[in-house]
Amino acid sequence: MLRLPAITRTARNLTLLVAFCLLPQLAMSDIKVAGEERAPGTLASITAEVKRTVASISTARSSKAIVTVGYRSFENALADRSSDLPIIATFISSTAYAELLGKYPHRKLVTAIYSNPDPVAQYFLAKQFYANGTVAVIETDPTKPVIEGLANEPIKIIRQQNNGLKLIRQLEHVDVLIALPDEEAINGDNVHHIIRFLYQQRAALIGYSRKLTDIGSLASIYPARPALLAELKKLINEYEATGFLPAPRFVNDWQISVNRRLARSLNMAVPSNSALLEDIHSEMGATK
Prior knowledge:
The protein is α/β, with parallel strands linked by helices.
């Protein structure tokens, strides 16, 4: 075996050392997670997954931020006047995000990945079933900023009523109602009445979660947990790369659940879920 002279080995080692020093050094992201690890059930497991996602990110810079999981941890971070760290809110709906920002207007470095779908995606899902039908949403103070995203679509706005009967009567000439994540509009007390009334009109509800489909909506579109975590990683990488906090965003990777029994009772021929998703992505792309 040919041995290199000692001076050659030394020169080679110095060259490698200089090259290593010139490379950008990867470090663990200096981003903390605030969640509900001790909460019962789903929220604790989500917090653990968010922590694993953040811990897996290596970066050439060490930007600081706090990632919140759920409503309570986001509100706590907003209310903490001892911290000026940028906040990345996760697993919170766009309506809840807007509501809390309104309560803490002094916090400026805030962004979010919304847990509900883009209402425009819900609109195009509704159009899959009622191509020429009247699509409506219920407007409340928390849903106003969300409804603004539907400004380019022909949407009927239904004003929230304290009187449930008056609210129901406004649905008489609606073919499909888009449910937005707001307890003032649709909640456990009125959702079954709304679904029953719509069905009597041969109309239907389009939801934002699998649970709403199980309750009785015709269909729902929603991002799955892996898609939300993947979007979080993408957002943090953008933040680390630029030093600027990206704007709040919806996830464009969805799942669909269809109440096929209800569809049959309404005499509807329903395409496959994959076909529905393909059409919605196509329509969303055409509107950009």
